[in-house]
Design goal:
Keywords: Cell cycle, Cell division, Cell inner membrane, Cell membrane, Membrane, Transmembrane, Transmembrane helix. The chain has 230 residues and is mainly alpha-helical. The chain is 84% helix and 0% strand. The protein has one domain.
């Protein structure tokens, strides 16, 4: 056992057992990846909420739906999730009506409306899949990181007590550095887990609220299409 009186954070890491150092390195990579996803998801959710509000204002202002559909289709990547859901439903509605007209068949308004609703549901699922990406990783980090850190702590403490077998007189000064080195792993594990849990809960709440707005829009827009198909 490497006994040292230097109990600085850096010294505790560099003097830790190799297995403990590997666990610390793993936790550092996990934490860095977690923070990357946290910031990217924060900007993505904020942008989705802003674009959703802007589209709702434009939609409920009472403009022409065909013009709004054309505008939404021009720049789908930056139009926002709700605009893409609208574009999918309106596009399917227009195509279905055009197909009946070109075939000179009597329009099945129920089939047209069902097609538009299915298109919006499919677009809704795609948008939710994008918004919920990496949330499972954050949940896993919040659940697993403390146990990974605890594994490093257990290994380090075990190694510290094994080193006492070679010491004639066991004192607190002899065992304290080894235990402190081991406890660093738990601290790093908690440092990785706590932000991930907080971010996961926050993003889940925000995404659920967006999902409710999307579902409400699908139902309201379906009613509008039903009135227009008559």
């Amino acid at each position: 056992m490497n006994v040292t009186q230097d109990l600085s954070f850096l010294s505790l890491i560099t003097n830790a057992h190799l297995i403990v150092q590997l666990i610390m390195a793993l936790l550092f990579v996990i934490s860095l990846t977690s923070w990357t996803y946290i910031f990217s998801k924060m900007f993505a959710v904020r942008s989705a909420r802003r674009l959703t509000v802007e589209f709702e204002k434009t939609f409920w202002a009472g403009g022409n739906l065909h013009a709004l559909h054309q505008n939404a289709g021009k720049d789908r990547a930056n139009s926002g999730p709700l605009a893409r859901i609208f574009e999918a439903g309106m596009g399917e509605f227009i195509k279905s009506k055009a197909a009946y007209t070109s075939a000179r068949e009597t329009m099945d308004h129920g089939a047209i409306l069902d097609g538009a609703r299915r298109a919006m549901r499919a677009a809704f699922q795609r948008e939710m899949d994008v918004l919920e990406s990496h949330l499972a990783f954050l949940a896993s980090v919040g659940s697993v990181s403390p146990y990974i850190g605890l594994l490093g702590t257990v290994w380090g403490i075990m190694n510290a007590f094994r080193g006492l077998a070679n010491v004639q007189q066991a004192t607190l000064a002899a065992v304290a550095p080894g235990i402190a080195e081991a406890l660093i792993a738990t601290a790093i594990g908690l440092f990785a887990a706590i932000p991930a849990v907080v971010a996961y809960n926050r993003f889940s709440h925000d995404i659920d609220r967006l999902a409710i707005r999307f579902e409400s829009f699908v139902e309201e827009f379906s009613n509008i299409l039903q009135r227009q198909s008559r």
